[in-house]
Amino acid sequence: MTQTIAVIRGDGIGPEIMDATLQVLDALKLGLQYEFVEAGLGAYEKQGELLPAATLDAIHRHRIALKSPLTTPVGGGFSSINVELRKRFDLYANVRPAISFPNTRSRYTDIDLITVRENTEGAYIGEGQQLSADGETATLTQKITRRGSERIVRYAFDLARRLGRKKVTVVHKANILKTTSGLFLKVAREVAQQYPDIECNEAIVDACCMKLVMDPQQFDVIVTTNLFGDIISDLCAGLVGGLGLAPGANIGTEAAIFEAVHGSAPDIAGKGIANPCALLLAAGQMLDHMGRCDEARRLRQAIVDTLQARDGLTPDLGGSGTTQDFARAIAARAAG
Ligand code: NAI
Ligand code: MG
User: Most exposed: 154, 173, 196, 198, by fewest CB within 10 Å?
Assistant: First the structure.
């Protein structure tokens, strides 16, 4: 049976990196079908909606979407489309691997860690945001639930087990945020007891950032709440050479959306020089999610080999290749 996925080409550099990614996926001969749907600024300009019903319907039907970055129009009170998608499909786990690749001008060469970020609650959601009439006082509600904490920590431990990883670090600030972060830590400790085969340790978020910069090799899987995870995963992207190499999966029980961590990069859009690797690596996460782990490995190996050979590298990686040059080089290796 051929499988169909929803594909969102997105805004800015989105269409360029999506074309490159689909070219490489085609080279892997996966037999995948694509249903192209729109979201973001492009959808708004054409259809008058940032997130058309047909797009939601396609994600709902296929349960898997590969998505390029979207531009949320500034002003006009639009809320983030990405936050909206996570809410709609209850995509509670945001999984962001940070793995060292060759020739990426990064500080380290041996990083291999995964941040599992809770994606649906906490301060990041912006619940109850208020500014007093005089503009002097701003408030925000931070809600953490047992259910939300339990399912994300369980997800992290199950992921560690599935990937043969050894350690999960629970990142929190329970010493200060005693109720919210405190509940998260308490639940995490309970869940950890059910995984005696996986080592569990704890780190306070600020100290954790310092350790990540100084000695990142001590980390394996990190699990944390939404806002901390947002910050820590970008820090980790910085450890392995920046946003051009950072993929992310948004996973729920009914659907999963795979994307690059970076945005639509309007400064380089249309120039044909965007690095497609982050979206390609997200496609690799998608293949793993679909149980097509061999093909995911082949895809990652093709990227590694292409970087190693410095074949067609884009300017952000110090090369002078175009998105198309780079994609062609990776596709040739993926085809085997
Ligand atoms: P950005 O990630 O788009 O760009 C930051 C810098 O990194 C820019 O200099 C850009 O040229 C560079 N960059 C990003 N991706 C690159 C790639 N693949 N290859 C080479 N260079 C790359 O962040 P920015 O400028 O803050 O946001 C631009 C737009 O993207 C905004 O409208 C924002 O809302 C949206 N955005 C969308 C996201 C999504 O859909 N998941 C995530 C983050 C931002
Ligand atoms: Mg972020």
Answer: 196
